[in-house]
Write a structure and sequence with these properties.
With 268 residues, this protein is an alpha+beta fold. The protein has 2 domains: 96 residues, Aminopeptidase, CATH 3.40.630; 161 residues, Gcn5-related N-acetyltransferase (GNAT) (Aminopeptidase, 3-Layer(aba) Sandwich), CATH 3.40.630.30. It contains 6 helices and 13 strands. The chain has a 5-stranded antiparallel sheet with strand order 1-2-3-4-5, with helices on one face. A hairpin with a 2-residue loop joins β9 and β10. It is elongated, with a radius of gyration of 22 Å.
Length: 268
């Protein structure tokens, strides 16, 4: 490809911005790389940007170059506590689209109050790693269609966005499921955090729409948290969209505390 070049001026210390690949830009000053910009396309088609800059105005110059090259809308995600980074994106024209809370969920049933939370009548819980792939994929398709018909997959965390083949299940061994009348009606995904094998993240809780408000999500959470507690894991992180009132109530109702938050920003 033929990279585009942008500079901060014409003197010998000018920062040169070069598009070195389809998804990557470099900022170079005096033959030293002072920043990099990247793009990644999510399975739902949205284009996300990230910039690492460690000298002067390189962030702004990289952002200007990338925005000139790329079609809108564009997205990025920042830690809400990183005020400097959030301000840099805002100066580039990005605005907040949504907030996602990270909760730390206790596993001890004496803390969560879930020790005496049996499944609803007729519902059984299949432990993590024991779900059958066929019924799990069927449930995945049902839940995916229900979400798409309501809030849309763009409101889901990145890790559960549809894959190119239309499925969100990549590893059936990560799921616990709820079964009613020989059908899978709810699921909970448990993910091992990269490079932290002792840290398990609650990745997704989803119940079929015709089985909600019966205590199935609470029973799934009780089962999984109890199993983690039995393995010596004291807390499990979970990400929740702040607009998802049911999920917020579920986690806060078992003593989960907010540890941090991420902002998804958009430039339209």
């Amino acid at each position: 490809m033929h990279p585009a070049h942008f500079t901060s001026g014409m003197d010998k210390h000018a920062v040169v911005i070069t598009r070195v690949a389809e998804t990557q830009w470099h900022a170079v000053e005096d033959d030293l790389t002072v920043g990099r910009g990247y793009t990644s396309r999510r399975p739902d088609g949205r284009l996300f940007l990230s910039i690492d800059a460690w000298r002067g105005a390189a962030f702004e110059q990289l952002a200007d170059a990338m925005l000139a090259d790329l079609p809108k809308p564009l997205y990025t995600v920042v830690d809400e506590a990183d005020l400097d980074l959030a301000s840099q994106w805002e100066r580039a024209g990005f605005t907040t689209r949504r907030r996602e809370w990270e909760y730390l969920v206790p596993t001890d049933p004496r803390v969560t109050g879930l020790g005496s939370a049996p499944p609803p009548a007729g519902v059984t819980i299949v432990a993590v790693g024991r779900a059958e792939k066929g019924p799990l994929l069927t449930l995945d398709r049902v839940i995916r269609d229900e979400v798409e018909a309501s809030v849309g997959w763009q409101e889901m965390p990145a890790e559960v966005l549809p894959r190119p083949d239309g499925l969100t299940v990549t590893d059936p061994s990560e799921y616990a499921v709820a079964v009613h009348a020989d059908e899978y009606v709810g699921l909970l995904r448990v993910v091992t955090v990269p490079r932290r094998p002792r840290c398990k993240r609650i990745g997704l809780i989803a119940i079929r729409s015709d089985r909600r408000r019966r205590g199935i999500a609470r029973a799934l959470l009780a089962h999984v948290l109890g199993a983690l507690h039995g393995c010596g894991i004291e807390t499990a992180p979970a990400d929740v969209n702040e607009s998802n009132g049911a999920a917020v109530a579920l986690f806060e109702g078992v003593g989960a505390r907010r540890a941090s938050s991420n902002l998804e920003l958009v430039l339209r």
